[in-house]
C-alpha cells in the first residue's frame, strides 16, 4: 500500500491510501486536487473516509460525484456520509483493517481511523497535528486530553497523517515550552529542511510526537513547569490542568 498527502487549499492534506489500482481518500475538502491526483496515478476511488464535519474536510465530496461508500462520524451531521461510524467499528477496505476511534475535542463527534499491521497508519484529521493539536471548537479540554491519550497509546511506528501542514508553527510553540528538549531541536532542523525543499513534514511518527509534542507531554516535569508560567497558569499539576493551560496559551501564541 502506498500513502500520499495531496495538498489542498493553503495548508490542507487529502490523504490517499492506494494499492496502485484503487484508493481510499481521507477528508476531501476540495475536489480538484483529489481528482487530479487520481487521474495522474491511474487510480479508481474505492471509498471516502471523513473525520469531521468542517467544510475544508467535506466540501469536495459532492463535487466529486462519487457513487461509492462515504464513511464518517455517526455523531455529526454530514449529508454525504452513507456509512456512519462509532468507536470500535472496523472496516475491511483494500485488504486493510481500519479501526474507528472516537476522538472528540476539536468537534463533538470527531473520529480517527487506525490502520493496523506492520506499518500502522493513523488518519487523525484535526485532533492531532505535527507537534500540536486542534483547537477546541466544540469539545472540552478533558475530552481532547482523553482523545490525545488514546492516540498516544498507539504503536511507536504509527505514521501520523494529520490534515494540515502546521508543523513548523507548532514547533515554535513547542520550543517555548521545552527549549532544552534535544529531540525537539532535532525535529525542528529536519522539518525546516523538508519545508525549504518543498516537502511535507508529514506523516510524522507516534514515537516522535510523544517525544516532541507538548500536548502529549502534559505529565512531563518540564512541561508542567512551563504550564505554571503560562499566561493563564495551570491551576495545579494534573495532566488536565497542564493541558488546559497549554491549549489556552497556544491559542494566543
Based on the structure, what is the oligomeric state of the protein chains? single chain
Main beta sheet, described?
A: 6 strands, mixed
Give a count of the beta strands, DSSP E runs of length 2 or more: 14
Query: What does the radius of gyration come to?
Result: 18 Å
Shape: globular
Level of helix content?
25-40%
Q: What is the terminal separation in angstroms?
A: 39 Å
Class by alpha and beta content: alpha/beta
Mean of residue pLDDT? 98
Strand percentage: 15-25%
Number of helical segments? Answer: 9
Which spans of ≥5 residues are poorly predicted at pLDDT below 50?
none
**What is the succession of H and E elements?**
EEEHEHHEEEEEEEEHEHHEHHH
Task: Describe the strand arrangement of the main beta sheet, using strand numbers.
Answer: 1-2-3-4-5-6
Amino acid at each position: 500500500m502506498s500513502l500520499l498527502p495531496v495538498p489542498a487549499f493553503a495548508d490542507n492534506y487529502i490523504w490517499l491510501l492506494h494499492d496502485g489500482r484503487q484508493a481510499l481518500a481521507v477528508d476531501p475538502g476540495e475536489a480538484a486536487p483529489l481528482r487530479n491526483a487520481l487521474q495522474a496515478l491511474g487510480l479508481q476511488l474505492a471509498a471516502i473516509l471523513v473525520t469531521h464535519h468542517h467544510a475544508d474536510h467535506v466540501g469536495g465530496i459532492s463535487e466529486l460525484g462519487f457513487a461509492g461508500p462515504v464513511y464518517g462520524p455517526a455523531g455529526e451531521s454530514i449529508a454525504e456520509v452513507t456509512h456512519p461510524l462509532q468507536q470500535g467499528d472496523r472496516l475491511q477496505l483494500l485488504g486493510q483493517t481500519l479501526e474507528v476511534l472516537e476522538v472528540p475535542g476539536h468537534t463533538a463527534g470527531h473520529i480517527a481511523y487506525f490502520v493496523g499491521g506492520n506499518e500502522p497508519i493513523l488518519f487523525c484529521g484535526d485532533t492531532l497535528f505535527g507537534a500540536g493539536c486542534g483547537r477546541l471548537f466544540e469539545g472540552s479540554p478533558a475530552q481532547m486530553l482523553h482523545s490525545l491519550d488514546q492516540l498516544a497509546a498507539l504503536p511507536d511506528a504509527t505514521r501520523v497523517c494529520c490534515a494540515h501542514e502546521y508543523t513548523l508553527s507548532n514547533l515554535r510553540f513547542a520550543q517555548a515550552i521545552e527549549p532544552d528538549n534535544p529531540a525537539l531541536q532535532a525535529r525542528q532542523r529536519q522539518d525546516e529542511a523538508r519545508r525549504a525543499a518543498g516537502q511535507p513534514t508529514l506523516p510524522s511518527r507516534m514515537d516522535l510526537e510523544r517525544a516532541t509534542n507538548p500536548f502529549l507531554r502534559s505529565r512531563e516535569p518540564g512541561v508542567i513547569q512551563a504550564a505554571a508560567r503560562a499566561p493563564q497558569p495551570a491551576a495545579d499539576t494534573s495532566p488536565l490542568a497542564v493541558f488546559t493551560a497549554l491549549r489556552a496559551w497556544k491559542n494566543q501564541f
